[in-house]
Amino acid sequence: INAEYMGTLSECLFFFVFPHHPFYIMKIVLAEKLAEAGQLALAAGGHQLVNKFLNGDALAAALREDQPTVLVVRSCKVTAAMMDACESLQLIVRAGAGYDTIDVAAASSRGIFVANCPGKNSAAVAELAIGLMFALDRRIPDNVKDAQAGVWNKAKYSKARGLKGKTLGVVGCGNIGVETIVRAKAMQMKIVVWSRSMTPARAAELGVDAKSSPLEVALCSDIVSLHVASNKDTKLLANRAFFEAMRPGSFFINTTRGDVVDEDALRWAMDTKGILAGLDVFAGEPSAKDGAHAVPIASHPGVYCTHHIGASTDQAQDETAEEAARIVNLFATTGRVDNAVNLGVTSEATHMITVRHRDEPGVLAAVLTAMQRANCNVQEMDNLIFAGGEAACAHIRFQAQGQVDMCLTEVKALPAVLAASLVVLPEEEGEPISPRVKRLKTWTE
């Protein structure tokens, strides 16, 4: 789908499907191929799609030139320099679950939303994890290689342990971990699980045996499959101690991220304990879609490797692209960012002022001006309109740094204010911000 075609289609679909819809028409740079389903959904929003398929300095230059509102990426890195090159950038959407390739801290400091599409490729990744288990047990790649080379060795390849009744250890129980558990249970495997969020009730619901640590999972499993997010807490989670705990001759599966595995420790385990590995991800794997690679562990005889293709099924790509488009279109119509990963989860607000007021231009501006004069730092707010459109009610949570009572007096004196009240929030407030308040917080900031 070329850019000229998509531009024409955008105009036609938008005015046909949304002739009176208050869409915010945006320029969107697609840094990598997005499935047609997603492009069509964005075209229906009337947006201008720019297919660049670039990374690194070339992508930074393209962002500087095009100045899009939204950037959609899959696997390419998004750096602070790229954000600085694009003053108009408001939203970065990762068309996938993980977002470790995006400098989220840099985006947060620049007021740029980062969103992901969790759960849409979970089944695909779980299918590959199960496939790697079968491949290791039945030595399928070696079977195929020998057969294609004219070698017949039924005696060698008829030896397999089988997966039925074996214990699968799942480390990480998010969407992909759960999908893996579902498939493993259908194969009549026993399941042990470790997850930071696992509770006895959740373990009972899934029909699994919860363990207290990844090491405990490694100790009692015939196969271990990693499904954790990549972050500072999980970096090198599968280390020397982890592999020392694994059973000799067991299988190790990693379809999450390369940096959660100490590859030197894995090599030791394969050399000394006969552990076999099925890997879809590697430390320092190429960012390009094709070409040569320099991933030493991929050539180890104890490894079956794939090309970081866990999420790469047509089903997963379509669902992920549609979700990315949904996030963008929702942002265009409401300002709301679903699946935002860089919004604060707690509030520093110390007070809340409730203002009932006439629904007239400039009222909230006057309220906020009064709060500014009193050195009150707004954290979150919403404004609800009553039936009939004559009155509204605003709730403004703020951090008090000045004369709060004087601020309240000034707000009450405003001509269009019907009433105003002030409460002190409990010190333990710190509760998660509701999705609605999160959305409205973006408008206040």
Structure description:
There is one protein chain. The radius of gyration is 27 Å and the shape is elongated. The chain is of the alpha/beta class. α1 packs across α2, α6 crosses α9 and α15 packs antiparallel against α16. The longest helix has 21 residues. The strands form three sheets. Strands 8-7-6-9-10-11-12 form a seven-stranded parallel beta sheet. The protein contains 17 helices and 16 strands.
Q: Let me know the number of strands.
A: 16
Read across the widest sheet, the strand sequence of neighbours is 8-7-6-9-10-11-12
Q: What percentage of amino acids are in beta strands? A: 15-25%
The biggest sheet, with number of strands, parallel, antiparallel or mixed sense and barrel status, is:
7 strands, parallel
Instruction: Determine Rg (CA atoms, Å).
Output: 27 Å
Could you say which structural class the secondary elements and strand pairing correspond to? alpha/beta
Share of helical residues: 25-40%
- Low-pLDDT segments: 3-22, 429-445
Which geometry do the CA atoms define? elongated
Total number of helices: 17
Average pLDDT rating? 89
List keywords for this structure.
five-stranded parallel beta sheet; single chain; 445 residues; 16 strands; elongated; 17 helices; alpha/beta; seven-stranded parallel beta sheet
Task: Give the SSE layout.
Elements: H1 3-17, E1 27-30, H2 36-44, E2 48-51, H3 56-66, E3 70-73, H4 80-85, E4 91-94, H5 104-109, E5 113-116, H6 122-138, H7 140-148, H8 154-157, E6 167-171, H9 175-186, E7 190-194, H10 200-206, E8 209-210, H11 214-219, E9 223-226, H12 240-245, E10 251-254, H13 263-273, E11 276-279, E12 303-305, H14 314-334, E13 351-358, H15 363-373, E14 376-385, E15 391-400, H16 404-412, E16 417-424, H17 435-444
Parallel strand pairs: 1-2, 1-3, 3-4, 4-5, 6-7, 6-9, 7-8, 9-10, 10-11, 11-12
Antiparallel strand pairs: 13-15, 13-16, 14-15
Helix pairs in contact: 1-2, 2-14, 6-9, 15-16
